[in-house]
Amino acid sequence: MRKIAIVDDERQVLQGMKRVIPWDELDAVWIGEAMNGADGLDMIRATKPDIVITDIYMPAMNGLDMIEQLRKEGFNGKIIILSGYSDFEHARQALRYNVSDYVSKPISVPTLKSILCKVIREIDEDEEKKIKQDEIEQKLMIYEPFIEKEWVRSAAVGTLDSSYQDGEHLPYPYRYWSESSHVVIGLDLVHDARASGLSLSDWNLYRFAISNIVCEIARKIFPEIEYAELHSTRAVLIVHPESNDHEQVEQKLQDLGIKMIDSIKSYLKLGMRVGIGSLKESWTKIPESTEEGFRAIDLREHRLISTYDLYAYSKNMSNEQKSVVLFPVKFSFKLASAIKSAQEAEAQQLVAEYIGELETQKGITKNYVQMLGSELWGIITYCLYEAGLVLDDLFTNDQIAKELVELTEPEQLAKWLSAKISIICCSRQCKGSSKHRQVVDFITQYIHEHYADEVTLADLSDKVFISRNHLSIIFKNMTGETFNTYLTRVRIEKARELLLERNMLVYEVAEQVGYKNVPYFSTLFKKMTGMNPTELIK
After folding, report:
1. CA of 46: how far to CAs of 5, 31, 40, 80, in Å?
2. Closest C-alpha to 236, from 332, 167, 377
């Protein structure tokens, strides 16, 4: 119920307004009155009305001064000015004070009712927006840890938007990065028989365990760290050494690497390779340290201890090794993301650009091409495995092994990868497993049952425990339509049925199928059916 207060220096106006306002019809109640601005200010402070109807020219304090003071005090209620004078300057001031309406006396009852209806509707919409805003803020609080993880991962592999290139745009928890030095440690689980035998659920549990073990050990040596999983068997640990003594930092990094390898072996019976990138003074160079960490693992040239798979990036490597683009983390990360979401065009472009760069390098041997093909195929199979998709029905291990042996040139590798990506992205398995079909069936059924409600993909993603972006891709792949297009089509088809029954007016039909904005509904209706609602009725 909305509370309305009236401020006017004419008693007959006060009494007349109280008498003619259709209180019950508006679901409103009179809350107080005053005959000058000063008393009105006290009354409004005490009663906190939703709507204030006020005159301008009054003794003690005029209406505009009263409104100005109310706004300074944070009063957010709606204000309607009802004045016997039409003055442009007063109207301009009213706009500055965010007045809902400025009306000249005398005013007819229908006009007064119409204005109050509009203002009450605005209050309802404001409250609805506030509720939605609160819900969004709650969701952001829930999802903040996941958003932060994704940000750290992007910062590590170099896929952050360019707008983050200065310290002012660093997220609050990572502002200290602008004043720290940074080293990235690449972590790569050995793909042995034990690791290969893990189920998807086991694999997820092991990755969770690995992150806990690594972070617990690292924080004892470097207080400030971040950990992020990459696709397949790889992860990164970003540390921020406090000391400027390079020898001391290198010794700490070596000790950390040994402890991580020993702990993963002891607790999880898994092998791990560790590669340490070089120290960077600027956080924008973190992706370079990431590349160096994994280059150290792939080259296995600068081994720190003979009995451990612990390697460090060396600037003194041979020119031939420097010229070879071994296994770019940014490329592999983007490729895995594209494959996982069945974005064939993006995946094909990434492969073409990468192989094109590779062809410009010297010293590319047949063994290197085959090794690279095997590694890239591992990325593809692992990222799909993480999504619950297995490629056994499309390709056997023997088939892949035979085909890899036949690859001798980068151009052959490009054609081979391109063909495989096309088959994967076009396959029914990639477009939707049985689990995905169940998810889409649930969503389409939900739309048909709740089309009149405010249905959003974000809300549905919470119900099926799939991220909004991933769910959007799954829905498009399975139905051939975007979520919003499908929802609109269902609503318009239902509206068409209701209009043909001739039992409701156009605006009633619009509300019945979930549209409060009638012109917008009519536009959508004509776009989908070729005619507007009134033409269909005729």
Report:
1. 11, 10, 10, 19
2. 332
CATH 1.10.10.60, the chain: domain bounds: 434-537
Q: What is the dihedral of CA 227, 228, 232, 233, to 10 degrees?
A: -10
Rounded to the nearest 10°, the torsion over CA 493, 498, 504, 505 is: 30
Spatial distance between the Cα atoms of 127 and 134, rounded to a whole number of angstroms: 10
The parts of the chain modelled with pLDDT lower than 70 are 84-94, 136-147, 161-169, 198-202, 204-205, 232, 316-327, 385-390, 392-393, 427-438, 478
Residue intervals of the chain classified under CATH 3.40.50.2300 are: 2-128
Instruction: Enumerate the β-bridge partners of residue 273.
Output: 188
Question: For the structural domain made of 2-128, what CATH number should be given?
Answer: 3.40.50.2300
The Cα–Cα gap between 308 and 313 comes to 15
Rounded-to-integer distance, Cα 72 and Cα 151, Å: 40
Residue ranges of alpha helices (H) inside 158-199 are: 193-196
Using CA atoms, how far apart are residues 183 and 293, in angstroms rounded to an integer?
A: 9
Radius of gyration of the chain (CA): 33
> Between vectors from CA 413 to CA 412 and to CA 418, what angle results, nearest 5°?
100
- Side-chain-side CA neighbours of residue 18 (13 Å): 15
Do you find a cis peptide bond into 106, omega within 30 degrees of 0?
yes
> Which residues, at least 6 apart from 157, have a Cβ–Cβ distance to it below 8 Å?
230, 236, 287, 290, 329, 330, 333
Place of tokens 């089309």: 451
Fold for the domain defined by 178-316: Alpha-Beta Plaits (3.30.70)
Chain region(s) in the chain for CATH 3.30.70.270: 178-316
Q: In terms of Cα–Cα distance, which of 494, 432, 498 is closest to 466?
A: 432
| Predicted structure pTM score | 0.51
- 217: closest CA among 263, 273, 266, 166? 263
Q: Closest by alpha carbon to 257, among 265, 269, 268? A: 265
CA distance 495 to 425: 37
* CB distance 476 to 431 below 8 Å: no
Question: In sequence order, what are the beta bridge partners of 270?
Answer: none
Residues 6+ apart with CB under 8 A from 505: none
Q: What are the tens digits of pLDDT across the range 166-214?
A: 556 677 788 888 889 999 999 998 877 777 776 655 676 677 788 889 9
Q: What is the pLDDT, as a whole number, of residue 237?
A: 96
Amino acid identity at 289: S
Nearest by Cα to 171 from 156, 157, 152: 152
CA distance 368 to 67: 77
Residue 432 neighbours by CB under 8 Å, 6+ apart: 440, 474, 477, 478
Contacts of 100-108 with CB under 8 Å at 24 or more apart are 105/13, 107/82
**DSSP 3-state helix, strand, coil percentages of the chain (rounded to 5)?**
65, 10, 25
Question: What is the fold, at CATH topology level, of the domain defined by 434-537?
Answer: Arc Repressor Mutant, subunit A (1.10.10)
